[in-house]
Amino acid sequence: MTTPRLEPLVEKDHAFDWTPVQMNLLKARDFEHQAPGTILLDFEALLSLIGDQGMPVTPAHLFAINGLETINRNLTHPLELRLKRPIQKSYPHINGLYLLLRATGISLIDTQPKKPLIKLDPIVLASWNALNGAERYFALLKAWWGRASEEMMGERRASGTDVLAKTIDFIQRFPKTGILTVEKPQDADMLRYYPGLYNLALMELFGLLDIRAMPIEAAKGWLPEGIRMTDWGKTLLDGYADFIKKSLGRKAESRISMLGFTELFDPLDCFEQWSRVVRPYIKGWRKDLEVPVSIFQPGPHVFKVSLRADCWRRIAIRGDACLDELAGTILSAVGFDSDHLYSFSYKDRFGRTVEIDHPSLAGESDNALADDVKLGDIPLYEGMRIDFLFDFGDQWEFDIQTESVNAGSAIKKPRVLERHGKAPKQYESW
C-alpha cells in the first residue's frame, strides 16, 4: 500500500511562521567556511577511513568492534568511554554517522569476502564529491529525516515509531526555555529510547543542539547532562514540525502523535516539499545527492538455494520470471507441494527489509505480491541473500544466495543445475 502524498503547501514564507531573525539566519549561513555543527567534517572523516578498500562489518553489517576506536579517534570530538567491550551503539555519534552512511546510499555491503565489508558506491560517491557544503549538509539531513530507519542500524523493525517520529516528538516536548537539564544518570535513561542517543548525537553533529555530557565515571558511557537548542536548531526543528502540521491539516492533532504519524505521509516526500520552500534561502543549495535507480536485469540469474546445510539446489532462472515462478521452482526442486503461503524478503541498498508476499494475500498485505515482481526488477548482485519462508505453520526457511547475475546464455525455462543432499519430508507423519 502506497503512503499518501502530502497536499502541497503554498510556497510562502508564513508557512513556517519564521521570524525575521530566523529568515536572516538561513540566508546568512555560510556552509563552505563554517557549516552548523561538525557533521560535514565527521562524515568526511568516516568516508576517508572506509576509502577504496572498505571496512569490516559484523554479520549484522554494523562496524566491527575492533574498528570502532579508530573511527572514534578520527572524529572532531572523540568520546572517552570506559566500557570493557563497547559496541557500535556505545558510540552514539558513530551510530548516527553509520545511519547516515546507509540512508544516503553512499555505502554498500559486500558479502562476497569471508567477512563482509562496508564499501563506498563509486557512483554515489562521485555525486557526493560534486556537491558544495550546503548541498552536502542538506543531503545528509534529507537522509536522516526522509529515509532513515532504526532497522538500518540493526534494530528490530519498528511499527509506527521510528527516527523522524522520535525526533519530532522530542522537539515538541522540549522546554520552552530551550534548555533541558538532566540531574541523574537514571533520569537520562529515557533518552536512550526517546529520542534515542543516536538521534541526540545527530542533532549535536548537525548543530541543532549543544550538549554537555555527564562525567564518564557517573554515566558509564555517553549520556547528556545539559541540552540547549541552538538558534539554528530552533529554526530548522520547529520549522519542520510546523511544516508537517500544516501539511497534514485536519489530520494533525494539537501535538503530532509520536505513534504512527509517519503512516500518514511519506517522510521523503515531506522533505522534498519542505526543501522547495527552504532552498531559496540557503546560499548555494542547488543540487542534490543522486542515487542511481536500478535497471531491469534480464538474466539469467543463478541462485544457490539451501534448505539445510546438507541440502541445497543450484537454480538458473531468467530475469523476466516472477518470484512466484521462482517459488514454484524451488519447491519442486525439493519435492514439496506448493499448497501453502510463503514470503520472500531481502535487504535493499539502504539496509531496509523488503517483503514480497504470496499472491493469495492480495487485499490483506501491504507488501508487493510475488506474481507482480520480476526477478530482473530486484537490484540483485553477486552474494546478495534472499530469505524464502514457506508454510507459515511449519516454517520452512530457505536461504537463497545470488551466485551470478546476467551471466551465461539466455534460457526460456527455470533449470535446476545441481542437486546436493536429500530433502527432508514435507510432512513428517507421511
Features:
alpha+beta; Structural Genomics Hypothetical 15.5 Kd Protein In mrcA-pckA Intergenic Region, Chain A; three-stranded antiparallel beta sheet; 32% helix; eight-stranded mixed beta sheet; 430 residues
Distance between the termini: 40 Å
Overall tally of domains:
2
Mean pLDDT: 89
Strand percentage: 15-25%
- Report the helical percentage: 25-40%
Reading side by side through the largest sheet, how are the strands ordered? 11-10-9-12-13-7-8-14
Query: Got a strand count?
Result: 14
Order of helices and strands: HHHEHHEEHHHEHHEHEHHEEHEEEEEE
Could you provide a short overview of the structure?
The protein is of the alpha+beta class. The protein has helices at 20-28, 31-34, 39-50, 65-73, 92-104, 122-129, 133-147, 163-173, 185-188, 197-205, 216-219, 231-248, 267-278, 323-333; strands spanning 55-56, 107-110, 117-120, 179-181, 209-213, 224-229, 301-308, 311-317, 342-347, 353-357, 368-369, 385-390, 396-405, 415-420. Helix 5 packs across helix 7 (133-147), helix 5 (92-104) packs across helix 10 and helix 7 (133-147) runs antiparallel to helix 13.
List the helices and strands and how they pair.
Blueprint: H1 20-28, H2 31-34, H3 39-50, E1 55-56, H4 65-73, H5 92-104, E2 107-110, E3 117-120, H6 122-129, H7 133-147, H8 163-173, E4 179-181, H9 185-188, H10 197-205, E5 209-213, H11 216-219, E6 224-229, H12 231-248, H13 267-278, E7 301-308, E8 311-317, H14 323-333, E9 342-347, E10 353-357, E11 368-369, E12 385-390, E13 396-405, E14 415-420
Parallel strand pairs: 10-11
Antiparallel strand pairs: 1-3, 2-3, 4-6, 5-6, 7-8, 7-13, 8-14, 9-10, 9-12, 12-13
Helix pairs in contact: 5-7, 5-10, 7-13
